[in-house]
Amino acid sequence: MRSVSFFLASLLILFLLLTCIGLFFPARVTISRAVDISASRASVYPFLSDPARWKQWFP
User: Fold this and answer.
1) pLDDT in tens, 2-26
2) Does some domain include residue 8?
3) I need a surface site. Which of 20, 24, 46, 56 has the fewest CB within 10 A?
4) What's the predicted TM-score (pTM) here?
5) DSSP states of 30-50
6) Measuring CA to CA, which residue among 28, 29, 47, 23 is closest to residue 37?
7) Over the Cα atoms of the chain, what is R_g?
8) Phi-psi region of 29 (alpha: psi -120 to 50; beta: other; left: phi over 0)
9) Residue 9 belongs to what domain range?
């Protein structure tokens, strides 16, 4: 019985520890990526608007 209560207490402490650590992280994370393309919008738009052609410009 002592080992079961020790196990449950350990789980509770672990849960509380992880909860306290989680409070320091932001609620939302935004990841973005940008690429500068040296081409006109008119020449790039057909590749971006058609997903089947994405492999031609983004390997």
Assistant:
1) 999 999 999 999 999 999 999 999 8
2) yes
3) 24
4) 0.46
5) ---------S-HHHHHHHHH-
6) 47
7) 25
8) beta
9) 1-25
